[in-house]
């Protein structure tokens, strides 16, 4: 189907123009309107069938073809209905110039990004201003009374060549850097179409147009470009993979294309300002403000994205440093905190204390009440221990199993004794039933160690001393504090 419809259209066109010469002229104009409309319908169908951002690219192509068909219809109206032959029609030329706007926007804007409507709106405004400035300049040059009509037309032809060559070149570049199959299909179709269109229009404008020996049927050869575009739109690529492209090149093209668009508008406006100051100055203003506002919006977006990434990293870090069961910091976080304290405060000789805390008879608790109840017990113990710490710089962490560890900054032996007793009492006051221990409730044993920070004392030795103190508390009957 992707080939049958375009080929059938071209065959029917050839038969009518060659074998029915009596209707060749009106048929040529009708075909010039129908061909882009059929290609637009194919692009619209392809866009509706796409599930990725490529659908908007196909919609842009369809819009460009419809506007081009409007320009062709303007020629049909002027020459067949109004019988005005071999003239330049302002409305038609405007339509042909505006038909380039959606394609220019598609090539220049980073249209694949979501949530960037403001930036894309700026690109669309710059593309529209470029199309209008280009038209205003060409129309002014055509009607420049200081030159002959032939000079104006020749100038227009060369300007159209530059425009078509620009579109073809940019399409090929975007095809080359395409990163997925859908994008590659879109720009492959646009590249082949634009190259064929440039070639046909170049030959027609330089050799056929304006020559009385050639009728309008010779200009209809441009329908070949629309038929090829229809075939690409109706047929998906069978390739499952796209060759890898240098990421630096992709970023350079994507970030540089909007700048190139603004630069093109600036150049066109500088040419226009010599013949139409108001429109030229407006174009320069849009180009400068457009790139400035776009750059600012892009930078704001990047800052917001960076801040969001930082928040995500902080959240992930908090997850990595938090014990999933109890909600207090884990052993890894405690080790980091201990290293920071030792590096930062050892020089001033401040005393630091380590508390090792163990839930008494916890194995019996688990065996009697079950592991889910044991987990709930650990969570309540952790909360009670956390509430018993009144200074924000003190760190409580789950050390492993039913063991917890505490870092008390700037705390001597007497202070460690006070905090240890407060934490022991906080757990006992929970009055959680534990029939497997003498007290009948859940209790903890605490071992504490304190020392001034110096080169003679390292973190590992202080933790070991606290662990030995914990062993002494458990050996002495549990629910005790030993220093």
Question: What can you see in these coordinates?
Answer:
This protein is α+β, with helices and mostly antiparallel strands and 483 residues long. The chain folds into two domains: 4-313, Up-down Bundle (Rhopdopsin 7-helix transmembrane proteins); 331-482, Alpha-Beta Plaits (2-Layer Sandwich), CATH 3.30.70. It is built from 16 helices and five strands. The chain has helices at 4-19, 24-49, 54-81, 90-98, 100-108, 117-142, 149-176, 181-208, 223-234, 247-272, 277-320, 331-345, 362-369, 371-388, 413-428, 459-475, and strands at residues 351-359, 395-400, 403-408, 444-452, 481-482. A five-stranded mixed beta sheet has the order 2-3-1-4-5, sandwiched between helices. β4, α16 and β5 (481-482) form a beta-alpha-beta unit. The protein is elongated and about 120 Å long. The mean pLDDT is 86.
Number of separate domains: 2
Q: Would you identify the regions where 5 or more consecutive residues have pLDDT less than 50? A: none
Order of helices and strands: HHHHHHHHHHHHEHHEEHEHE
Radius of gyration: 39 Å
Strand order of the largest sheet: 2-3-1-4-5
Please name the CATH architecture of the largest domain.
Up-down Bundle
List the helices and strands and how they pair.
Layout: H1 4-19, H2 24-49, H3 54-81, H4 90-98, H5 100-108, H6 117-142, H7 149-176, H8 181-208, H9 223-234, H10 247-272, H11 277-320, H12 331-345, E1 351-359, H13 362-369, H14 371-388, E2 395-400, E3 403-408, H15 413-428, E4 444-452, H16 459-475, E5 481-482
Parallel strand pairs: 4-5
Antiparallel strand pairs: 1-3, 1-4, 2-3
Helix pairs in contact: 1-2, 1-9, 2-3, 2-9, 3-4, 3-5, 3-8, 4-6, 5-6, 5-7, 5-10, 6-7, 6-10, 6-11, 7-8, 8-9, 10-11, 13-14, 14-15
């Amino acid at each position: 189907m992707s080939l049958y419809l375009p080929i059938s259209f071209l065959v029917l066109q050839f038969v009518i123009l060659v074998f029915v010469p009596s209707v060749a002229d009106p048929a040529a104009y009708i075909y010039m309107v129908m061909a882009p409309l059929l290609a637009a319908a194919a692009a619209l169908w392809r866009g509706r069938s796409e599930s990725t951002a490529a659908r908007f690219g196909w919609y842009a192509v369809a819009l460009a073809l419809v506007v081009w068909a409007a320009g062709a219809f303007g020629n049909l109206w002027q020459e067949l209905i109004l019988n005005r032959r071999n003239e330049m029609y302002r409305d038609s030329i405007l339509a042909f110039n505006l038909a380039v706007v959606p394609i220019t926007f598609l090539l220049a804007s980073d249209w694949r990004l979501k949530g960037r409507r403001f930036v894309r709106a700026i690109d669309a405004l710059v593309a529209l201003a470029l199309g209008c400035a280009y038209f205003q300049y060409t129309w002014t040059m055509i009607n420049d009374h200081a030159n002959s009509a032939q000079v104006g037309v020749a100038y227009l032809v060369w300007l159209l060549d530059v425009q078509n060559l620009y579109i073809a070149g940019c399409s090929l570049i975007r095809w080359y850097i395409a990163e997925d199959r859908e994008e590659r299909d879109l720009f492959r179709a646009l590249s082949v179409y634009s190259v064929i269109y440039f070639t046909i229009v170049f030959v027609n404008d330089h050799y056929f147009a304006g020559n009385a020996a050639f009728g309008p049927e010779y200009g209809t050869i441009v329908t070949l470009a629309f038929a090829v575009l229809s075939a690409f739109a109706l047929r998906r690529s069978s390739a499952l993979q796209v060759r890898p492209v240098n990421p630096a090149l992709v970023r350079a093209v994507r970030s540089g294309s909007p700048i190139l668009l603004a630069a093109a508008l600036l150049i066109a406006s500088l040419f226009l300002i010599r013949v139409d100051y108001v429109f030229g100055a407006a174009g320069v203003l849009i180009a400068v403000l457009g790139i400035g506002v776009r750059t600012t919006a892009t930078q704001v977006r990047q800052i917001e994205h960076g801040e969001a990434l930082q928040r995500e990293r902080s959240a992930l870090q908090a997850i990595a440093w938090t014990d999933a069961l109890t909600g207090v910091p884990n052993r890894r976080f405690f080790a980091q905190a201990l290293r920071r304290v030792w590096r930062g405060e050892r020089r001033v000789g401040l005393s630091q204390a380590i508390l090792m805390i163990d839930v008494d008879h916890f194995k019996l608790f688990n065996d009697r009440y079950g592991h889910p109840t044991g987990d709930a017990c650990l969570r309540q113990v952790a909360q009670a221990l956390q509430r018993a710490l009144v200074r924000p710089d003190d760190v409580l962490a789950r050390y492993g199993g039913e063991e917890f560890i505490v870092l008390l900054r700037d705390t001597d032996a007497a202070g460690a004794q006070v905090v240890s007793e407060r934490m022991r009492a906080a757990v006992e006051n929970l009055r959680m039933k534990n029939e497997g221990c003498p007290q009948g409730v859940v209790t903890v044993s605490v071992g504490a160690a304190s020392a001034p920070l110096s080169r003679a004392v390292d973190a590992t030795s202080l933790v070991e001393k606290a662990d030995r103190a914990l062993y002494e508390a458990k050996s002495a009957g549990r629910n005790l504090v030993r220093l």
